[in-house]
Write a structure and sequence with these properties.
Radius of gyration: 28 Å
Number of strands: 32
CATH class of one domain: Alpha Beta
CATH superfamily of one domain: Ribonuclease Inhibitor
Shape: globular
CATH architecture of one domain: Alpha-Beta Horseshoe
CATH topology of one domain: Leucine-rich repeat, LRR (right-handed beta-alpha superhelix)
Largest sheet: 8 strands, parallel, barrel
Length: about 725
């Protein structure tokens, strides 16, 4: 009888999960989280906390979705973006349009029918649906750029319209015509054979014989670009790579360019030879400076260091894809580029605490940022919601604080952590792309995950659960407890060995703004204040306790580990320890942070929220549609950041450290959405940090951005199109 009971229980569970409702609001939060199979039959909403947003973000286990009876003429942009578990979707019978990236990277979809009423399929609507094997198009909708690209498993494509649906040359990019059976109405084959987009199913797409126009394609803009005399260089050659002995890594990168771009031109044994020459040039005046020359029969790339040579290769990569309409152009004009960065740290910060980033996906983020000369990856490894880094002295941290359920209204399990060996692997991998990895261990706030495991870290030894919402906790590390310093000392000792970067980020934000009660009501903290001679009672004394805690940890980092501390700036920090790096992040307070850095002879990283918070939506209605009240940070706002903030060259030379973009992940719930939030604003930030002011222009940037984004789409990279 026991197996029968088990089967009955299973049947009941399945029947509870196979639900038919009018709209998502009819379901309770836990029903949405548990849903495997849903049918919606009402009038569906598409804005704000819409039916589609709830399907995407709240129904994390969803496998099948039937919208055939739903009243819905438009499936919005990003409707079910990167829902990797979704295996089957039946679209509304009356749907007229499907927005851009609506089903991007729904990798488990196996078959799909585009209904007869459909008139338009947006850019990348079904891109990277790698598992899709069978596709039926009942009508003749307009198919946008890369709308059905990256369908590597597609085997049967059935089109019922005698007139070929309007398609772009890129619509089916990456679909292997040799593996796909295209079925069209009898007598229509010749029309399809001649139609743009469809012709690729009958013959290999012809190379468009593109000629690169360098001034129209490069991001970030180089300091100097000059066209030189002579006929354009034909790239249809048998390319070899020659490199100085110290440039083995860059030789590999150059060979990768040959294999992934130049080889697509299909040179023959009769094609002329071409040489890509990599060399070190100590005469260049900056460690990241480079020179790129296109000559009569080859390309020469020089750098003062291997990093400079690498950046020359990244520039060459952009030149080769030209306007992005093909993976490689055929002709390149003779030219000379001399280039060097304006700032030397150009950073992106990712947050695996709120939403864990699987290790391989974290690694994959590095090459994309390096393409645009971003050179630091800041890892926010601990917060109130999770502890994500192995500490051998405290295995309890990852055992007890790396797994939870929920992030605000998203009741999804989230678990995972990085081993020290994985982080060493990441550091070595990133070094190949000249990206340094900077770890962040928050203190004294945003430490609930550690306090959850070790209550003695906080005042009153209060045990607290992992946080499952955004916001700020009242629980801080206790500055009067010696265990706090023992704990932090052991953590930083291990991480100093794992991360060779000279920098360690200490957090320091939101630990009492206004001051919280944790330290005010703690007898041990009161005793510490007396010993330190802190007599004020206006709650500013808590900031003095934070200064005491910071000074002790900073001294340890400097004297024992040779690390330069970084931290988020708060206006209550009256003294910034000399030589530290502080981050200007709060809206409207950048000038105050700059003044404090100058007064204390400190360095400053600019990442003000109004320009650099890339987790914010890029336009009204863009992802994340529902959040904790984020303002919009538009692409233009990011581009308009002045890294010198109107200050003089002395500030830029002595105090400016660099620029950074932040990707807090309260609302970023898939690896693909990290790219969506980062790009194209990270491209704007790369130009802010790299290019001299005299070559920057918003209008010109927008022109150069188009081929850059098109190339990202060709390679299957998600990015926001709301610009």
């Amino acid at each position: 009888m026991k197996p029968l009971l088990t089967l009955a229980a299973l049947t009941l569970a399945v029947s509870m999960q196979a639900q038919k409702v009018g709209r998502m609001d009819e379901l309770q939060p836990q029903q949405k989280a548990d849903a495997l199979h849903l049918t919606l039959c009402g009038k569906l909403t598409i804005q704000g906390n819409s039916d589609f947003r709830q399907l995407r973000d709240l129904c994390w286990q969803l496998q099948t979705l039937d919208l055939s009876e739903a009243d819905c003429q438009r499936v919005p942009d990003n409707a079910l973006h990167s829902r990797a578990r979704l295996q089957e979707v039946v679209l509304p019978r009356g749907v007229r349009s499907i927005g851009s990236q609506a089903f991007f990277a729904c990798r488990s979809l196996r078959s799909l029918v585009l209904p007869r009423a459909l008139e338009e399929v947006g850019t990348m609507a079904f891109a990277q649906c790698e598992g899709l094997e069978e596709l039926t198009i009942e009508g003749a909708p307009r198919l946008g750029e890369f709308a059905l690209s990256g369908l590597g498993s597609l085997r049967r494509l059935r089109v019922l319209s005698a007139v070929p649906p309007q398609a772009c040359a890129s619509t089916f990019e990456g679909v292997d015509r040799r593996c796909v059976k295209l079925e069209v109405p009898e007598g229509s084959e010749e029309l399809y054979r001649r139609a743009e987009g469809w012709s690729r199913f009958y013959a290999e797409p012809a190379n468009p014989n593109l000629v690169c126009r360098p001034a129209e394609v490069l991001v970030p803009a180089p300091a100097s670009l000059q066209l030189t005399e002579g006929a354009p260089l034909s790239l249809r050659r048998r390319w070899t790579v020659e490199a100085d002995p110290a440039l083995d890594n860059e030789r590999e990168q150059a060979q990768l360019l040959v294999n992934t771009r130049l080889a697509l031109l299909q040179p023959t044994s009769r094609s002329p030879k071409g040489i890509i020459r990599l060399a070190l040039n100590p005469a260049l005046d900056d460690d990241e400076a480079y020179r790129l020359e296109v000559g009569a029969d080859g390309i020469r790339l020089e750098g003062r260091t291997p990093a400079g040579v690498f950046y020359a290769l990244m520039t060459l990569d952009q030149l080769l894809r030209a306007d992005g309409s093909s993976a490689c152009c055929e002709f390149m004009p003779r030219l000379m580029i001399d280039d060097a960065p304006r700032t030397h740290i150009r950073e992106l910060m990712v947050d695996p605490c709120r939403t864990f980033i699987p290790f391989e996906q974290l690694k994959a983020f590095v090459p994309e940022m390096a393409r645009y000369k971003l050179n630091a990856l800041h890892l926010h490894l601990v917060d109130d919601q999770a502890w994500r880094i192995e500490v051998k002295a405290y295995p309890q941290l990852t055992a007890q604080a790396s797994s939870r359920v929920g992030m605000d209204d998203m009741l999804r399990p989230d678990s995972g952590f990085y081993t020290q060996e994985q982080m060493r692997e990441l550091v070595a991998y990133a070094a190949r792309y000249h990206v340094q990895v900077v770890p962040e261990i928050e203190m004294p706030g945003h430490e609930v995950a550690a306090i959850h495991v070790f209550p003695q870290l906080t005042c009153h030894a209060k045990r607290v659960p992992l946080r499952t919402t955004c916001g700020v906790s009242d629980e801080l590390l206790c500055p009067a407890s010696e265990f706090t310093y023992e704990f932090l000392g052991n953590v930083f000792r291990e991480l100093a060995d794992v991360f060779p970067s000279p920098y360690v980020h200490l957090g320091g934000d939101e630990a009492g703004n206004p001051a919280l009660d944790c330290w005010t009501s703690c007898p041990a903290c009161q005793g510490l204040k007396q010993r330190l001679g802190i007599t004020t009672t206006d709650r500013s004394e808590n900031w003095k306790l934070q200064e005491y805690l910071f000074n002790r940890v900073i001294d340890t980092l400097r004297t024992k580990h040779g690390k330069t501390p970084m931290f988020w700036y708060e206006t209550d920090f009256k003294r910034i320890p000399k030589g530290c790096v502080t981050f200007a992040w709060r809206h409207g307070l950048t000038r105050a942070a700059i003044d404090a850095a100058v007064a204390n002879e400190a360095r400053i990283m600019l990442c003000p929220g109004e320009h650099c918070y890339l987790d914010y939506p890029m336009a009204p209605g863009d992802m994340p549609e529902v959040n904790w009240g984020m303002p919009v940070t538009s692409l233009k706002q990011t581009y308009e950041l002045d890294p010198a903030w109107g200050m003089d060259e002395t500030f830029e030379r002595q105090n400016l450290f660099g620029v950074a973009g932040t990707l807090w992940s309260e609302c970023i719930n898939s690896p693909e959405r990290i790219y969506y939030q980062a790009y194209p604003r990270a491209l704007a930030l790369s130009e802010v940090g790299w290019s001299p002011a005299r070559v920057r222009s918003w209008t010109d940037f927008c022109r150069r951005l188009k081929p850059t984004v098109r190339d990202m789409q060709r390679r299957g990279i998600s990015c926001s199109l709301a610009w």
